[in-house]
Amino acid sequence: MIETIKWTEQGVVILDQLELPAHEVYRTCTSYEQVADAIRRMVIRGAPAIGVAAAMGIALGVDRSPAADAAALEKEFNHICDVMAQTRPTAVNLFWAIERMRAAFEETKGEGVEAVRRRLVEEAQRIHAEDLAQCAAIARHGAVLLPAQGRVLTHCNAGALCAAGGYGTALGVIRGAIEQGKQLEVLATETRPYLQGARLTTWELQRDGIPTTLITDNMVGHLMKTGQVSCVVVGADRIAANGDTANKIGTYTIAVLAREHGLPFYVAAPFSSIDLSLPSGDQIPIEERSPEEVTHIGSTRIAPENLPARHPAFDVTPARLITAIITERGVARPPYQQSLKALAELPVSAAL
Ligand code: MRU
Predict the structure, then answer these.
(1) Are residues 161 and 246 in the same domain?
(2) 10 Å Cβ neighbour count for 89?
(3) The domain containing residue 110 runs over which residues?
């Protein structure tokens, strides 16, 4: 199993996704600042993985804090949470994880600094373990939706590398279907400009022996039109209450093409990616990253000097283009306003 991130005595150990696929390098973050920097620079990326990393970063910061009394520790805790919250804006899992850590802090703060430290480390490890279990449940719920044979198109990386490890979300659904004996191949878009598909999805699927073909993003329409795609499965960074879904830039285009060609378009995500506080996708903040990620591939410039470039890192797919949203609590179908709310109200014990 690919281990994306783990808690150790030495610090938070992260598989460096900037080095993949050429090198499999694990980095040990020994301070919360290093974890925040790893999230910002996309050493670790993908919505659920960002949430786990933020939780571990907060636990690490509190565990290593010199604060000797409750007031000093609370001040430091709030500062660490602020630093984490400023790393990346779109994936709501980050803010969800910070809130989980805040609740754990509030519960134990009256019991002394050592109790708080222990509790936050436990909470971060719990979030990590839950993520693995949630992805396995997403795989179970989603596998039945895929055809007995065919070609599944996915965008960006929504696999083990975007989660705590294990199945991942969208790739978990594909892994689950293959485990059920379905004869599936994967079409992975390269995912310009950051190339998560070319570098990461292909790497992890090849390791699992899942037949995978790499395509450039602008081949999707042609392959759909010529009958070479059976369905689409992608992950999510934030899903609004009405089902509108923010995911990697280019997802919206694929969803429009899927509708045009009558193909099912599935979103797979844990409930920590669902933001019921937002009525629609219009309110989802879209991260704008460095134009250099567009003008360069790696460190090589491919565009003229002094050329303006844009890099909105995510787009929002309207709910009406989404066939179903697969979560660890079950599968939501339109109208999502009702179906997501119903799943959210399930007792936690029934969720996995
Ligand atoms: O910018 P990234 O690589 O963090 O974006 C990741 C995505 O958009 C993924 O598709 C999404 O987080 C789902 S990951 C399970």
Answers:
(1) yes
(2) 18
(3) 5-136
Ligand 1 binding pocket mutation candidate from 18, 43, 157, 238 (most atoms within 8 A of CB):
157
Ligand 1 close to Cβ of residue 172 (< 6 A): no
Instruction: Look at ligand 1, atom 13, and give the residue with the nearest C-alpha.
Output: 235
Q: Is pTM, for the whole model, over 0.90?
A: yes
Residue appearing with tokens 């089902």: 243
The residue annotated as part of the active site, out of 16, 208, 217, 237, is 237
Q: Check whether residue 90 and residue 197 sit in a common domain.
A: no
| Cβ-based burial of 110 (10 A; exposed 0-12, middle 13-18, buried ≥19) | exposed
pLDDT digits 0-9 by tens, 194-243: 999 999 999 999 999 999 999 999 999 999 999 999 999 999 999 999 99
Reduced to 3 states, what is the DSSP secondary structure of residue 188? strand
Q: Is 329 in the pocket of ligand 1 (CB under 6 A)?
A: no
Verify whether residue 244 is a known catalytic residue.
Answer: no
